[in-house]
Write a sequence for this structure.
């Protein structure tokens, strides 16, 4: 295939409520939408999910724009591309910048699937017709706000609840949740806010029957997570630490985790995400699909990825209306009784809602 035309758009969309973690808060979300167009005018879309502030990984929305414009777009524009699975190799001379890479790699996957009249899920080798989803609830102003959010999520049918913890808001929070909801599938995400010295506290969490604890230690650590995992029963799930297939291999060999949260954007695209999925499958490591507070395009890619067989645990890909008053796709992503139905239409399977896309676009550039 050949890409004749690329458009990068910067969007600014207000989330229904601020999402708060141990490191910061997002409400006015800025992100990128990349459109690739072939010689027949067929288009594919990807989302650049890096935040404005580099609190989660080192990338930001602005670094993504720079890396796309100055390096990645020129590497694919007017070049003969055999298959989208070759793109990550093509980008290997550019170090890291995985979210920038994923923004255009996923767009090329969408375009490829459309050219071949296949759903993206099928093109990736997925087989499910529906996926089970959970929900991630950010840090709330008060415990009663948190209860309200959990009650609502359970009523909507979400299959597991994830809450954020941080030093000072951990044991007492989890104890309170467990007292009120003794049996719900529950997990906690620390977003790298502890150190190995907090071991006694993390050990104490073992009594609360958590499905897992996500990313307790540093974002770039794999070794100390292995030391911690030896001493606690609750499975560790790695998120920030796993940026590539090689990271996943290291973590598995060291015994750093029992579970991996796969985000295609954190690892540079769908091809690398699938490789990590396959590696985990061979090694009996469970995986689930994480989220980056995506708008519809990024969400659609996550949903397609989740149809692969080893995504055995519910992910964080909640429905559009959990985040947005209006999403940039139609139909919006809908969750019924904790399930999302996989669309059969070619590509990501959701159409772009152009009036909405344009309303939220604050900057745009074309490359041809
Ligand atoms: O750590 O998984 C995380 C949101 C932004 C950045 C990092 C994380 C999250 C979430 C929410 O937990 C995921 C979502 O609902 O998209
Ligand atoms: Mg996380």
């Amino acid at each position: 295939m050949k890409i004749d035309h690329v458009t990068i758009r910067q969007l600014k969309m207000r989330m229904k409520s601020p999402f708060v973690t141990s490191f910061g808060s997002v409400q006015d979300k800025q992100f990128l939408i990349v459109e690739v167009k072939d010689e027949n005018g067929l288009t594919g879309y990807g989302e650049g999910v890096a935040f404005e502030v580099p609190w989660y990984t080192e990338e930001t929305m602005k670094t993504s724009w720079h890396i796309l414009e100055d390096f990645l777009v020129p590497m694919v524009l007017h070049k003969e591309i055999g298959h989208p699975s070759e793109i990550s190799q093509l980008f290997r001379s550019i170090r890291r910048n995985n979210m920038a890479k994923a923004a255009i790699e996923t767009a090329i996957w969408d375009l490829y699937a459309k050219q071949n009249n296949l759903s993206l899920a099928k093109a990736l080798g997925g087989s499910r017709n529906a996926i089970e989803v959970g929900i991630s609830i950010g840090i709330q102003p008060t415990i009663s706000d948190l209860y309200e959010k959990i009650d609502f999520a359970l009523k909507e049918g979400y299959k597991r609840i994830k809450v954020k913890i941080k030093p000072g808001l951990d044991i007492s929070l989890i104890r309170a949740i467990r007292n009120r909801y003794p049996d719900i599938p529950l997990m906690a995400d620390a977003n790298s806010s502890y150190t190995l010295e907090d071991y006694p506290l993390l050990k104490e969490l073992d009594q609360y029957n958590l499905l897992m604890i996500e990313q307790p230690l540093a974002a770039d650590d794999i070794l100390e997570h292995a030391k911690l995992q030896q001493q606690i029963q609750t499975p560790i799930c790695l998120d920030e630490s796993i940026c590539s297939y090689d990271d996943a291999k290291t973590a598995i060999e060291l015994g750093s985790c029992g579970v991996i949260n796969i985000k295609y954007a954190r690892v540079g695209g769908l091809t690398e995400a699938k490789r990590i999925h396959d590696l985990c499958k061979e090694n009996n490591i469970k995986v689930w699909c994480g989220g980056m507070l995506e708008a519809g395009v990024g969400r659609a890619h996550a949903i397609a990825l989740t149809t692969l067989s080893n995504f055995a645990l519910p992910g964080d890909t909640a429905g559009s209306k959990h985040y947005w008053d209006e999403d940039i796709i139609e139909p919006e992503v809908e969750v019924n009784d904790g399930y999302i139905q996989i669309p059969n239409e070619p590509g990501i399977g959701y159409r772009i809602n152009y009036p909405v896309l344009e309303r939220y676009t604050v900057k745009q550039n074309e490359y041809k």
Observations:
- The longest helix spans residues 98-115.
- The mean pLDDT is 97.
- The chain has two domains: 3-117+352-367, 122-348.
